[in-house]
Amino acid sequence: MSVASWPPPRYSPPLSEDFPSDGDRILQLVDLCWTDDHGKKLVLDNWQRQLIRHVLEVYPEGHKRAGQLRYRECFVSVARQNGKSVIGSILAMYGLLRESGALVVGLASTADQANIVYKRVLEVIQKDPRLEKRFKKATMHRGIVGTNGSTYLTKASKSDAVQGLATSLGIIDELHITSPALWSDLLNGIAAKPRGLVFGITTAGDEDSELLIRLYKTAEDAPERFGYFIWEAPESHIPEDDEELGRFIKLASPSIAEGRREVENEIAEVRSQPETDAIHFKLNRFVASLNPYMRSDKWNAAARGEDYVWPEHGPLVYSIEQTTDDTYATISATRKTADGRLHTELAATFVNPNPELLLRACEILRENGAQMFAMDRLKLGPLANELKRRGYPVWFASGADIINASSLLFLKVMNGELEHSNDVLLNTQMARTVRKQKSGGDAYRIDKSASSIEIDAVMATAIGVYVAEQQQERPLGIL
């Protein structure tokens, strides 16, 4: 199962085997000054050193562009958790020190994300007196400015973020959610800079990743001044054989190929993930933005047997969901037992329910031991407010709760920590439910609008499982 970390499965080869590179100088600085997150001397992986040298390849002596960077635009695609921010911070430092008056711009989906690289650069400067002398300003809020007049800015990836900026080096994280216009604006910004570079680093995307799809297509044509370095599994599926899966993972994750991370742990994680997530984030392959939510084999295995007895003890949550057009509503019951397992079943379903009917149902359930009522505040706000006014314990489920509920229900089913009632309505809806990835991260949510049928029973179950997981057993009536 041995897989080399370098070269990646797809990459732009250098102009010659002994190519010159500005990477040699910045790597010397890294070896002298850089520390890791624990304050220890940073030891780069071989693939990281090779990547920096290749990205910063320069034309050799005798060439009409001698000393200039070979690449004007360059991107790296690699699986999650491979130290992308370290690469970005080293390149940012290179841009600051390379020439006087340079403007280095770091971009990501949010300013906080862009600041991850910025903070790494700042910490290196502040911890090393030799570097600190090279900067007249280096703070979190007032910016980084070199004694040579170079400046480092961070921005969120918005359409007008870099228009009109004469950029020397643009560094973009998360190319899969970056607009093509932003990349073009950065290219325009380096037009007057003979040594300018636009660099992006990312994981694979989906059918909506217009810029990244375009960059992958450009890589197929392999123009001389366009660099690409793509670590990916050879196919977009999860092999059943662990050894083959390990090989796939290593091809997408050079840090695992070099042994910095244990491949056995990654294999176990893949086996517990939604298949789409594993293909996307572990194998670094493009996926669809909408995918089936639940694995049918795991959901069927979580159905309780004929001799099952509903537990009498443990926090009891009733969760309510109503369809967008108010045609249907479902109340789900979820109980968490002392062993940490979750038990769920449909308590009631309604056709054309009115607020009074749902309120009366809640009154009955309260009389029968409900510890918490949970519902989406946007849809059932008036009902939730009325229950709250009466002193009932109510959980107002937010958008973030729905995201967390989506992943928690899946995880509980995958781990065999949930039992459901095998209700025909819930089974039918679960089989047709889809999930949508949230932009720029691992999170996803059940997507009501894209599912092919109404999924009020699924939503009520997910919310109930999430809220029940948060509950501690307590006497009825204590809020």
From TrEMBL:
- Organism's domain of life? Bacteria
- Which Pfam families does UniProt cross-reference here? TerL_ATPase (PF03354)
Location of the Terminase large subunit-like ATPase domain: 62-219
How is this protein named in the record?
Terminase large subunit-like ATPase domain-containing protein
Q: Which organism is it from?
A: Microbacterium oleivorans
